[in-house]
C-alpha cells in the first residue's frame, strides 16, 4: 500500500514521465504489469479525477509517441462517456462512476475543452485523429443539448470551411458522430449543414478522405431528420454522394470506394426511400460495379450488398425494388456468374468431412448467400421468371460449372420462392433429376443437394406428388461410389422428414438395405450420412421400422462401442442419435433390452472427461431425452446420471467478445468457425454460436424431461427453475428463450402433481404457490420485453397454462399484473398492425408485399388468440371476482367487435364475452345491454367461426339471462333460424356454427318456453337432431333431449306421440355413435327410456313408431337394446366366444353370396385379437348387423330377430 501511494504521488507530481509510463504499462502484454497499472489508474480516477483527465489530455496533445496518444484518447473517451445503462440507485461505496465530467472542477472542465480543440487542430496522424474526434463527440453529446460548450459548433464550422483537409475531415467526423448522438440539437443548423455537405462532396479540390467523411456525415444527418420533407431537402446531395464513389473508382482508389460503399449500404438499409427518386441511376451504377470484372472482389461484393440491402428493406420501402425487374435480372445474372467461380480441386474428391468446401471461392460463397437473401426478399413472383430465363441455358451449356451453378441456384432460391415453385414442380423435379446422371461428380452432388433442399422447402408437396420418381433416384444414387460425396443419404434425410409413413413404407426395403451397405463403407463421412438418414427414416416410418430393427441395431451398437478415437467422435455421436430415434420409432417393448446396454455405454461416456468441443456432448443430451420419451417412467433411475451435466450445459454463459467497430484488432475467428460477428453502432460483437447451441439443446432437453416424467421430475425442480427462469430474457438465442418458455408450465405441473400424489417430501400446496410466485411474474416481465411476435404468442400460451395450473393460488396483485400485461400486449400488437397498414399505403406496395404483411398479421392473430385464452382462463378461475378487471380491459376488447377488425379479433372478443356470461352468470347481466346487440348481429357474420362463437353466446345468454334476455328472444330465434336453414349449413365449414345454433335454440326452448310458439319451435329443434360435429355441444343437447323425454314433454312428443319416431331415431343414432355424442350416463338413460317405451306403449303405437324407422335404424335399436340386455345376462368371456363362434360360421356361409368388399370386412372382424375384439365389435356392430339382415333377407322375421339379438 505504501509503495502504491509513492507511485501515485510520483504520477501526480510535476514530472509528466511517471504518468506517461503508467499509460504505457496499461498497454503491456505482461499481466502483472498491466494489473498494477490498472490499480493505480483506478486510484487516481477515484481520488484525483481533475489531475487524471488533464494529464490524459496533455498526453493526447503533446506526447511524441503515437501509441501513447492513441491510448490517451481511448482512456479519456471512457472517462467522458455517460453510462446511461448504469443503475440509478446509489452505487456501492467501492464503486467509482466511470463518467467523470460532473466530478471535475469548472476550471478543469474549461481547460479540458480548450485542450481538446487545440489537439484537433494539431493532430496529424489519421488513426489518432479519428479516436480524438470520437472523444470530442462523446463529450459534446452530453454538453451541447445544455449549450455547455458554446465554442464547439463555431469551431467546427470554421474548420470545415478551412483550407486544411485534415481539419475539414475532423470536423465532418465530429458532425457525423453528433448526428448519431444528438441529431435534434443540430436541426437549427439544417440549411448551413446542407451547404457544407454539398460543398465538401462537390468540390473538385476536396481530398478523397474529406469527401468520404462528408458522405458519412451527410448520411448520418439524413438518418436523424424527423420528417420526409426534411429529407427531401437533401435529395440534391445524392448525385454528389454517388460521385464520391464513382470518382474514387475512376482514380483506382478502391479502398476509398469501399468505405463509400459501406456508408451507402447503411443508407440503403435505414432510409431506402431517400434513394427512390433516383433509384434507377443509383442501382444501375451499383450493378455496373458488380459486373466489372476488373475491380477487386471486395468492391464488387459491396455493390451487390447494396442492391440486396435495398431489396431487403421491405419494412421501410415495401415493393420498391420489384418495380425494376430489369435490375433484378441483371443482379441475378451477376450472382449466378459468381457461382461459376469454383475449382475442381482434388481435395474435394477425397474429402473426409461433409463441410469440406474445397474449390469454393469467396465469389462463390457471396453468390450463394445472396441468391438466398434475394429470393426471400423479393419472392417467387419476381424471382422465378428471372430464373426460368437463365437456368435452361446454364443446364444446356457444356461446362460442368454451369450445370453445378444452375442446381445450386435452384436450391438457394427454393425457400423464398416456395409458393411459386410448388406450382411448377414437374419442371423443377425433371430439371434436377436429369442431372443425377451427369458425368461430373460435383454436378451429381449438387443435384442430390438440390433435391434435399427442395424436400425441406417444397415439402410435403414434393414428397406427396413425386416420391415415385425421387426416392428410386436417390436409392440409385446411393450406389455411386466414384465419389464419397456423391451419395444420397443426406437427401434421404431431408426427403423423409416431410414424409408420412404411408409414402415411405413401400420404399423401406431398398432404402434401409442400401443405407446398411453405406454404413460399412470405409469413408467416415459416408457412414455419418448413412446414420443420419437411417435415423430420419426410422423417425418418419415409426412402427413400420420394426421390421428392420434386428438387422440395423447390431451395426449401430457396434459403432457406438468401437468408434472411440478422437477422429471418430462425430461418428459415435451420430450413432447415439440414430439409436435413440430408432428406439423411439419401434417402441419400448422392442427396444427395452438394447436400451439397457446402450444406456450403460452412455453412462460410461457421461462419466469420462470430454473436451469442450466434443460433439458427443450435445448429441448425448438429445439421445438421453429421446430414451426418456421411449421408456417413460422406467427412465427415472438414470436421471441422477443425466441431470448434472445437463444442468451444466444449460447454465453455460454466452461466449461474447466486444471490440470497437473501427478497431484494428479483429475478433479472432481462426480457431473456431462457430464464432459469428455482428456490428452494432460502433461496437463489433463476436459470439461463439457452438456454446449457444449446446445451451439451447440442454434447455430443450430439460423441458422434455419435465414434460415426459411429470411428478417424477420433482426432485430436480429446485435446480432447474433458477436455471431456466432467467433465460426467459436470454436475447442471444431464440431457441433458449423458447425452451425456457415451454418449460414453465411443465415445472409447475410437475410440482403440483408431486404434492397431490404425496411425492414432495412433506411439502404442501404452499410449495406450488412459492414456485408459481417465482415463475409467473418472471414470465410477465419477459413478455413485456419480448421483441419477437412468435415468442410473444408462445409466452402467452405458457402463461395461460401456468394460470390453469396455479388457479386460485394467484394473488390479486398477480392477477393485476397479468391484466396490465395483456393490455400492453394488445396495444403493442395493434401498433404493429397499424404500422403495417401504413406500409400498405406506400406507392410501391404490391401483391407480393401484401401477402407478406398478411403472414405477419397472422402471427398477430395468434397473439390475440392467446390473449383470449388467458382471459378465458382467468374468468373461469375467478368468475365474478374477476369482473372489476374485466371492466378495465373491456375498453381494449370492445373495439375488437368492430367490422373493421379481422374475423379472428371479432371471434376472440365474442368468446371473451361468452366466457363472462357463462362463468359469472347473474353478475354478468349488467353487460348484456352493451354486448348482446353485437352478439346478435354477429350471428349472421360471413365468417363461420364468428357465427359459431356468437350463436354459442346466444345459448349462454338464453340459459342465464332470464328476464334481461326475454325481450330479445324473438330476434334471437330469427338469427338462429338463418344459421340453421342456410342451404350449406352442414358442410364442413359451417357445421360447427350449425351445431351451436341448434344448441342455442334448445336452450331457448328450455329456459324461455313461455316466450315462444313452443308447438312450432320445439319440433323444429327436434328436427335438427342429432348434432354430430361439435361433440361437446352434442352431449349437452342430447342430454337435454333425454330429460325432456323423461318428463314427457308435451310439445316434444307432439299430438298422439307424433314425434316419437323421430325421437327414437335420434336415440338410435346417438347410441350407435358410442361415447362420441352422449355421456355414458345419458346413453344409459336413453336405453332405459327405449325399454320403457317398449314395455309401456300400446302395441299399435309401438308398431307405428317402429314402422316409421328406416331399416338401419330398426337394426341399430335392436343391436343396442338387446346387446345391453345380453351383456348384463352373460359374462364378457362368454360373449366373446359366442361372437367368435357365430361370426366364423357366418363368414363361411356368407363368403359364397356377398360382395368381395363385404367379405373383406368380415375377415377384418374375425382376425381381431382377443384384447381388442369387444371394443371393435361395438364399433362395427351396426354395419355387421346390417350385412346379416341383407344376407338373410329371405328368412322370416323371427330368424332375423334371433340372429340380430343374439349377436348383440
UniProtKB/TrEMBL annotation:
Residues 377-616 form the TOG domain. InterPro entries: ARM-like, ARM-type_fold, HEAT, HEAT_type_2, IMB1_TNPO1-like_TPR, Importin_beta, Importin_rep_4, Importin_rep_6. It is found in: Cytoplasm; Nucleus. Pfam families: HEAT, HEAT_EZ, Importin_rep_4, Importin_rep_6, TPR_IMB1, TPR_IPO5. GO terms for cellular component: cytoplasm; nucleus. HEAT repeats lie at residues 428-466, 931-963. SUPFAM superfamilies: ARM repeat. One of its GO terms (biological process) is protein import into nucleus. SMART domains: TOG (SM01349). Keywords: Acetylation, Cytoplasm, Nucleus, Protein transport, Repeat, Transport. It comes from the Eukaryota. This is TOG domain-containing protein. It comes from Colocasia esculenta (Wild taro).
